[in-house]
Amino acid sequence: MFGSTLWLTLATLAGLVLGFAREWLLVHAWGAGLISDAFLVALFLPEAVRTALAAGLLSNAALPLYQQRLGADRARWLEALTPSLLLLGAGLALLLTLGAGAWTGVVGAGLSEAGGELAAEALKILAWCLPGLLLHGLFGVAALTRERYLLTGCGSLLFNLPPVACLLLRGSAVSVEELAWSCVAGSLLMPLSLLPTVWREGWRPWRWPDPGVVGRELAGRLGPLLASALASNGLALLERMVASWLGEGVVTWVNLARKLINLPLVALMSLNQILMALMSGRVWDARLALLRVGLQCAVLLTVPAMVGIVTTAPALVALLLPAQTGSERLALLLVWFSAPLAVGAWNAMLARYAYAGGDTRLPLRCELAGNLVNALALLVLPSVLGTAGIAVAALFGLLTTTACLLRRLELFGEVAWRDQGLLAFCSFCMSLLLGNWWRALPSLPLLALGTLAGTVLLGALAWRWKPWRA
Predict the structure, then answer these.
(1) Helical spans, DSSP H, in 129-211
(2) What is the pLDDT of residues 330-360, one digit of tens each?
(3) How many whole angstroms separate alpha carbon 40 and alpha carbon 180?
(4) Coil, strand, or helix at residue 361?
(5) Is residue 97 within 8 Å of residue 82, measured between CB atoms?
(6) Using DSSP, how many helices (H) and how many strands (E) does the chain show?
(7) From the CB of residue 375, how many other CB atoms can be counted at a distance below 10 Å?
(8) Which long-range contacts (CB under 8 A, 24 or more apart) does 311-314 make?
(9) How confident is the model at residue 318 (pLDDT cuts 50, 70, 90)?
(10) Using an 8 Å Cβ cutoff, are 402 and 436 in contact?
């Protein structure tokens, strides 16, 4: 598990670095203002689909079904679902294209009239990313089964490569339409990279078996996961709407902060996919043993990253955006968005523990409870705490989900939630103190000290737990 996670992490990290580079280049090309806000509002829905698929929306439901089959039955399974998912993607793209003005009016409720029109035009193009994204999700099931983890992790890299190249070549002269079409090109590169893998599985594009039984079987497993993804993205939508009302450029700052925070989570996403593949089909004791190791790995990856981000946030922003006005908002968002890192990592692991046992409904109910708390907090906290209220609301929701999952899965006495939770809390408080003591330092020394603090904690936890031996 540890070795496979490392390889998948490296591939996904390259994609996330390019994703951050895309947002960074976008800010440098257009600034944090009307055009960048409008493009990010338009990109929200396609990006939400891509993120949900990368997090396992399709693979969590399909992996156990695919692994039950052998030989030619696996090829028939892929062939039966390929046209259905392509038609679904095209239908959703057409729906978004026809209603682009209404969709962007909801996502960017606080945009000006000019910004709303610009966002609608961009969405009419970006919507056509969906067929390629869905096809990549389906082909990824076969790649994970064949342990092609590195190949699967290259999806984000391929998606972000064309827009990054476009921004590098065109700079501030790039138009919204050009950047949108480059994203569509990236979505087509994703399934093309997996064609050799599914071809070796026996899949042929000219064979279209009846998807009836296979489609209904997958839909039954996919339903709760889809509802969970919709709930999560509904919450992200509310967050984007609140940000659009907090002033011009806030949408861009929140989005850039999310991208930066996602960089240390790359190994966690890889670990989740591999843990799901390993736990599927195993008995309770074996799944629980894997879960304990997975939770340790999650804390090992997230808590040192949190310490590093909190202590170095001002230095990171100063180095990345030295001439950008209003960048102090980004530093504040980085500090508070890092607080829920460990909690979110736990929730992802606990949910996959339930998925591996065939229960996709229980995590949904727990997540909905957390989302409700998050949504209610979003309606109150940003008006009191400003942009930091968005991150604090997310933390409240995640803690609620964690408590529900531990109780419903009867894991309060089976996992070390007290010790690991206390470790995360104390680490956050200590990093806040260190950041306050070191804030007068120049950017480079501050960055070096923060990195050192995170590295020391990472080494200490790794020496104490040694998860690779398990």
Answers:
(1) 130-145, 149-153, 155-170, 176-200
(2) 788 888 888 888 888 888 888 888 877 777 7
(3) 10
(4) coil
(5) no
(6) 20, 0
(7) 16
(8) 311/431, 311/434, 311/435, 311/438, 311/446, 311/449, 311/450, 311/453, 311/454, 312/435, 312/446, 312/447, 312/449, 312/450, 312/451, 313/435, 314/435, 314/439, 314/443, 314/446
(9) confident
(10) no
User: CA–CA separation, 207 vs 147, rounded Å?
Assistant: 25
Residue 448 in tokens: 């070096």
Percentage, residues of the chain above pLDDT 70: 85
- What is the per-residue pLDDT across 375-407, written as a single tens digit (0 to 9) for each? 899 888 888 888 888 888 989 999 999 999 999
Cα–Cα distance, 144 to 463 (Å, whole number): 30
- Of 239, 196, 208, 189, give the one whose Cα is nearest residue 44: 239
Residue 275 has pLDDT above 70, yes or no: no
Q: Tell me which H or E stretch contains 212.
A: helix 212-245
- DSSP character string of 24-81: HHHHHHH-SSHHHHHHHHHHHHHHHHHHHHHTTTTHHHHHHHHHT--THHHHHHHHHH
At residue 174, the 3 state secondary structure works out as coil
pLDDT > 70? residue 283: no
The number of beta carbons lying within 10 Å of the beta carbon of residue 236 is 17
CA dihedral (398, 400, 403, 408) positive or negative? negative
- Which residue from 315, 21, 292, 337 is spatially nearest to 156, judged by alpha carbons? 21
> In the numeric block, which tokens belong to residue 97?
């294209």
Q: Are 299 and 424 in contact (CB under 8 A)?
A: yes
Residue 205: count of CB within 10 angstroms of its CB: 11
Q: What is the mean pLDDT of residues 428-439?
A: 86
Q: Is 93 exposed, middle or buried (0-12, 13-18, 19+ CB in 10 A)?
A: buried
Please state which of the ranges 157-161, 228-232, 363-367 shows the lowest mean pLDDT: 228-232
| Apex 57 CA angle, 7 and 238, nearest 5 | 110
Q: Over 70: is that where the pLDDT of 276 sits?
A: no
Q: What is the pLDDT of residue 128?
A: 93
Query: What secondary structure letter does DSSP report for 441?
Result: S
Who's near 413: CB < 8 A, 6+ residues apart?
none
Which two three-digit tokens encode residue 315? 């230095």
Q: What length is written for the chain?
A: 470
The rounded distance, in Å, linking the Cα atoms of 79 and 344 is 35
Retrieve residue 67's tokens: 């692994």
From the list 335, 293, 295, 346, the residue with the least C-alpha distance to 313 is: 335
d(CA 109, CA 102): 10
Q: Are 161 and 14 in contact (CB under 8 A)?
A: no
Cβ contact 2:297 at 8 Å: yes
Q: Which two tokens stand for residue 408?
A: 């419903």
